Amino acid sequence: MLGICRGRRKFLAASLTVLFVPAVTWIYLFAGSFEDGKPVSLSPLESQPHSPRYTASSQRERESLEVRVREVEEENRALRKQLSLAQSRGPARRHGNHSKTYSMEEGTGDSESLRAGIVAGNSSECGQQPAVEKCETIHVAIVCAGYNASRDVVTLVKSVLFHRRNPLHFHLIADAIAKQILATLFQTWMVPAVRIDFYDADELKSEVSWIPNKHYSGIYGLMKLVLTKTLPSNLERVIVLDTDITFATDIAELWAVFHKFKGQQVLGLVENQSDWYLGNLWKNHRPWPALGRGYNTGVILLLLDKLRKMKWEQMWRLTAERELMSMLSTSLADQDIFNAVIKQNPFLVYQLPCFWNVQLSDHTRSEQCYRDVSDLKVIHWNSPKKLRVKNKHVEFFRNLYLTFLEYDGNLLRRELFGCPSEADVNSENLQKQLSELDEDDLCYEFRRERFTVHRTHLYFLHYEYEPASDSTDVTLVAQLSMDRLQMLEAICKHWEGPISLALYLSDAEAQQFLRYAQGSEVLMSRHNVGYHIVYKEGQFYPVNLLRNVAMKHISTPYMFLSDIDFLPMYGLYEYLRKSVIQLDLANTKKALIVPAFETLRYRLSFPKSKAELLSMLDMGTLFTFRYHVWTKGHAPTNFAKWRTATTPYRVEWEADFEPYVVVRKDCPEYDRRFVGFGWNKVAHIMELDAQEYEFTVLPNAYMIHMPHAPSFDITKFRSNKQYRICLKTLKEEFQQDMSRHYGFAALKYLTAENNS
């Protein structure tokens, strides 16, 4: 080891000589080139021999200087040659499998942090090497609970992924809600070189529930205190982030700061940028004890291995117990306790430059953290006002945040070239399925859509509903895109029960929907509507995928499979619940048909009873659904019989039948091969019939289709011959699959199709 260090000292001395000698020489030359404070050119071509200032002695001095410069250059060349020989022998001593590191060109984007943080944690003090290897995994911990925080995490992760050049491992301390949302999101996002692990936040409540906390983050705002106990024991270091953080640089730069820690420093924190801990914000303001201004815990670097050895768990508990005797509760959650510990043990903290946590709450000193846009590293929206906070440059910060908020997350599925990634079974299966498709097939794009994995964000808005205890509850299921958003309020007024909606949107449209919903009193008053965002990808509207997503995430035993363009009759929710009991849907395979009608009027006085509907039908204000363009779709409902029916009646399946039905939640999914327009419901009803569902028409139920402009997909169907050819091909393949799956009983579908 001593020999290695001596060798490295020689190497370092040689390096300094290469840099120092020419620097001193040129300073000397430069200084010598001034006469009376004015510069004089060193070039012989630019000298003036006839000038009175020009003398023979000065010419000799200049010539001797030029000779000395040439000698120094020769010495430098010799030194560089020695250095290159030493470097060619050096790499053998590096440890780890990945020797390639960030260069300034590949860089972390910040030469200062790269220079300052190049001491590797596992090497001896006499050696230096770059801090973040190219394929080194960066660990990030985030505490997340609830629907709103889950949305915030997505924006944070986008900003990290946008800048990153390293594999990432996210450790998410999440409650059951956040875990369901984020597990589905990351599973369908399929970002290479990103690993996600979840830790049950609800199990950690007992660790911190004894601490009274006034902060709006509640009990989850205290859970960063127990990360040494929660995270894997072999995890040595981690970056801890609040959910309201936005990155403006590569997170590897922050990871590199760990190598600046010295001695007993185990916490990396930015100074608090408000006067909170100074205790002068208002009269009788009494904050928790802190060192000076204290530290903000929105961004923390934790050296977990050292913290465990220091018995961090015992340290913060004793401090909290002592301070709570006089303070009674925390005002800023974990931040108060971290600061109280640091006040007693200032040697624990390494103070990060404040650009690593630019705190945008009211009355902060955040403007002192940056002079230019390039100075910004991490932005922290740590005010309850969030984007409405007061700040001189808030418009710039808001636009930066909105950029990531609306950024297409699909573009972040980029590979890290040169870094091996863990085998992902789902990704491998997807690639195998796609490789089996014939790209020369004229229907290739249709077939490919069946295997496309769409990024999915469940429960985009707050959802809170407990199904009725009598096991009769029914959820309305539908799907929509941005152009049908105006139907939401009307449906909520007509249907008071739970609703599950799948929305096909881009990232930017998802934010437009959020603003629309938050501005609607009708939608905000309803907590029993589950909004599930399926992000746009590909050229087709994946109608059956959307239906499956909405079906899968219901909490009731029954569901009403509707479409967004239909308004159910007033009172249909209660009527269906009674029908479920009356027709023993729990113990029989039945599909209850809700007869469908339509109007061509945008303004309709909605019928409040069957009698009123029949009157409007006779007057020509209403029609049976699609009677003038697609009679076969609903003809088997037998509207003539329905007019006078007072009890449920059974009907038989016929070709192209596509009614709207109420079924148990365990009914088969829709077939994903059908996208856009055509056969998407027909195929589902056919499969229900193949599984021996009994179709029963409800005599006092109805729904009305509201007029709208033709969809993009129906326009393509009507104008594109190849579209229609491919749909016909997919129909035939579906029928063949039905025959193979259901055997002889499925032959009637082929016969019916040929006769229709």
UniProtKB/TrEMBL annotation:
Family label: In the N-terminal section; belongs to the glycosyltransferase 8 family. In the C-terminal section; belongs to the glycosyltransferase 49 family.
Residue spans crossing the bilayer: 12-31
Pathway note: Protein modification; protein glycosylation
Gene assigned in the entry: Large1
One GO CC term, this protein: Golgi membrane
Bias type Polar residues, positions: 44-58
Alphabetical list of Pfam families matching this protein: Glyco_transf_49, Glyco_transf_8
Reactions mediated catalytically: 3-O-[beta-D-GlcA-(1->3)-beta-D-Xyl-(1->4)-Rib-ol-P-Rib-ol-P-3-beta-D-GalNAc-(1->3)-beta-D-GlcNAc-(1->4)-(O-6-P-alpha-D-Man)]-Thr-[protein] + UDP-alpha-D-xylose = 3-O-[alpha-D-Xyl-(1->3)-beta-D-GlcA-(1->4)-beta-D-Xyl-(1->4)-Rib-ol-P-Rib-ol-P-3-beta-D-GalNAc-(1->3)-beta-D-GlcNAc-(1->4)-(O-6-P-alpha-D-Man)]-Thr-[protein] + UDP + H(+); 3-O-{(1->[3)-alpha-D-Xyl-(1->3)-beta-D-GlcA-(1->](n)-4)-beta-D-Xyl-(1->4)-Rib-ol-P-Rib-ol-P-3-beta-D-GalNAc-(1->3)-beta-D-GlcNAc-(1->4)-O-6-P-alpha-D-Man}-L-Thr-[protein] + UDP-alpha-D-glucuronate = 3-O-{beta-D-GlcA-(1->[3)-alpha-D-Xyl-(1->3)-beta-D-GlcA-(1->](n)-4)-beta-D-Xyl-(1->4)-Rib-ol-P-Rib-ol-P-3-beta-D-GalNAc-(1->3)-beta-D-GlcNAc-(1->4)-O-6-P-alpha-D-Man}-L-Thr-[protein] + UDP + H(+); 3-O-{beta-D-GlcA-(1->[3)-alpha-D-Xyl-(1->3)-beta-D-GlcA-(1->](n)-4)-beta-D-Xyl-(1->4)-Rib-ol-P-Rib-ol-P-3-beta-D-GalNAc-(1->3)-beta-D-GlcNAc-(1->4)-O-6-P-alpha-D-Man}-L-Thr-[protein] + UDP-alpha-D-xylose = 3-O-{(1->[3)-alpha-D-Xyl-(1->3)-beta-D-GlcA-(1->](n+1)-4)-beta-D-Xyl-(1->4)-Rib-ol-P-Rib-ol-P-3-beta-D-GalNAc-(1->3)-beta-D-GlcNAc-(1->4)-O-6-P-alpha-D-Man}-L-Thr-[protein] + UDP + H(+)
Keyword Transmembrane helix carried by entry: yes
Native source species: Dasyornis broadbenti
Stretches for region Disordered: 42-63, 83-110
Entry-linked PANTHER family: GLYCOSYLTRANSFERASE-RELATED, XYLOSYL- AND GLUCURONYLTRANSFERASE LARGE1
The name this protein goes by in its record: LARG1 glucuronyltransferase
Topology relative to the membrane: Single-pass type II membrane protein
Compartment list: Golgi apparatus membrane
Signal peptide bounds: none
Alphabetical list of InterPro entries matching this protein: Glyco_trans_8 (IPR002495), Nucleotide-diphossugar_trans (IPR029044), Xyl/GlcA_transferase (IPR051292)
Family matches, as SUPFAM superfamilies: Nucleotide-diphospho-sugar transferases
Keywords of this entry: Glycoprotein, Glycosyltransferase, Golgi apparatus, Membrane, Multifunctional enzyme, Signal-anchor, Transferase, Transmembrane, Transmembrane helix
Main location group: Golgi
UniProt-listed Gene3D superfamilies: Spore Coat Polysaccharide Biosynthesis Protein SpsA, Chain A (3.90.550.10)
Example of a GO biological process term: protein O-linked glycosylation via mannose
GO molecular-function terms, A-Z: glucuronosyltransferase activity; xylosyltransferase activity
